Request: fold
Amino acid sequence: MDSSIKPEELHHVSHEHEHDEEGNKMFGFIVFLLSESVIFLSFFAGYIVYKTTSENWLPAGVEGLEVLAPSINTVILVASSFVIYFAEKNLEQKNLVGFRIFLLATMLMGSYFLYGQAVEWSQLEFGFTSGTYGGMFYLLTGFHGLHVFTGILLQLIIFIRSFLPGNYDNGHFGVNSTSLFWHFVDVIWIILFILIYVWQ
Amino acid sequence: MTNISLNIGSESHHEPPTNWKTYFTFSTDHKVIGIQYLVTSFMFFLVGGIFAMILRGELITPESDLVDRTFYNGMFTMHGTVMLFLWTFPSLVGLANYLVPIMIGARDMAFPRLNAAAFWMVPVVGILLMSSFFVPGGPAQAGWWAYPPVSTQNPTGNLINGQVLWLLAVAISGVSSIMGAVNFVTTIVKMRAPGMGFFRMPLFVWAVFSAQIIQLFGLPALTAGAVMLLLDITVGTAFFDPTQGGNPVMFQHYFWFYSHPAVYVIILPIFGIFSEIFPVYARKPFFGYKVVAVSSMLIAMVSAIVWVHHMYVSGTPGWMRLLFMVTTMFVSVPTGIKVFAWVATIWGGKIRLTTPMLFALGALIMFVFAGITGIMLSSVPVDVHVNNTYFVVGHFHYVLYGTVTMGMYAAIYHWFPKMTGRMFNEGWGKVHFWLAFIGTNLNFLPMHPLGLQGMLRRVASYAPEYTFWNVLASLGSFLLGMSTLPFIFNILISWMQGEKAPANPWRAIGLEWLISSPPPVENFEEIPIIINGPYGYGQSEPLTANLENQAIKTAE
Reply:
């Protein structure tokens, strides 16, 4: 028998092993995000292969992309990652009002990002079906935009939940995972921005 | 210690699902979900088998005379799809669902509701695929690999066609698998009983863990490719359309980056089953436990760098073919380690040739054969010669029927008493084994000479000189179809009125054999404390510190 466990402690050891539900959820969520990142990596790999092998990469009449507006958008999205971090910190310090203010700011910044992208889309001279370039551009920005939209929805849910008493007294899986998801969306955007806008 | 022990075989402590109606509900009990997976996937296995017999019926004569060619194309597409996405994957997920939590000493999976949701997507996938028989143009005809530009053709012009339904079904199946993989990985990492380090986990758990990691990192690539293909068909993008600057070979990369590792997703759990079964029926500790555990992870890792061996003739440059030939051959190293470990485990043991052992041994023999043809196929010069012929079909059917399906039968028989609380009929089990073993070899062995002589796959008619081997293969397929009858009969009768099974009918070692058959609702009254490795035959030390485990102490 294992000498480290005395017979009289068996019951105790077995009961101590209550499974940590919040920890499991967070672990599962990180595993899910890792898997999700492979979809983006697959699209990125496709983009790189198409860009380096296509004979007619840019659609006829298209010079390239405007960089200034997307750069401002990038700064706003990256900044919002810090803002949601402050929201998390405020909640840890039981400051619900501060939590709500920072969360609201994150949502506004995310929404502004989506608005900026919509404006850009409406001004572009090529569409989804304009060769592999158009396809990859809209696929990448669209799939990322869908993630931004999902992130804002998650933020809205935890925002509303913060008004219901008792929700955030112990354990903040919803908040921590939403925040992690937002950082994830942010990191993906940085790679995407470099691929599409910087490396033209 | 006795006051906190679990009463083995006691009937008063558990309320297992005795009513069959339980299995039609949204249950979150991993054991119910496991059986739901197993039964559902077996139903689809029968459907896929009927498709196969239609194909072999067509091929019994050289002319295309039984079904029309469009239907034949739909048949081989659906046969492959059903067998992979609705039989092998879900049946193994079902088995893992049933066993993994018990084997690691947990009460359930980490996310029981997610688990149930993942299961209920399987019938949805089945309904989507089967409904494609009723849309204009019939089911998808581009094969289970769905290569463009064949798959992007849409002669009927309908947005809802067989190929679109196929892609939706594959996407849903992918979502279900990712949900399952997140659940398995979290369960295995976070919910092991106290004392169960990674190197005290049963080898089946190691195998499932490795396989699910492949799912997590491989499936998203297929999803990416499937989304792009769906957009090409429905919206008119040009990712894979060469006439508009797209590249059809890109789809092959997306597809095989997942679909080759997918083979290991189904074969690794079968290896795990072998590792559980051989020590029990040879009455010996597992030979080389740690090496075999690590070899599963090694196979999972190498699996990510072999996919181009499916594309030797897709215009792949020579240096890349060489690279992927070497990496593919490297898979045989960890696999060979396992085979030697199994042989060494059986070597000199007191072998009991019960039905599960027969199936496991039969599957191992056929796996060795498949491994040899696999190494042949990994070699570029051989592959270029036999590519697209029946040699390839013969090889992967030795893997998928000879090893995976036969291994699955071994598992079903081995754990049947545990799952149902009843014993099966050994005589009928042996009849089933011999019919299936002879049927498999009669069906798939002739495909090798056929392929070497140059008969192409996916064709409904062939030159008359190929008739002899084709007739043999077709007879084999009908025999294989027949072999399921004694199985179904045995399982149904035994489940209803078989002899009551004790907790540990095989005198096996492992947590699942320490609890009653069938197990109580939450598996363990007291979470076990693990103080030993899983295969201690001949040792006097018990497996756990707090569960009654006289079965373990019987030194043999």
Notes: Residues 1-14, 552-556 of chain B have pLDDT under 50 and may be disordered.
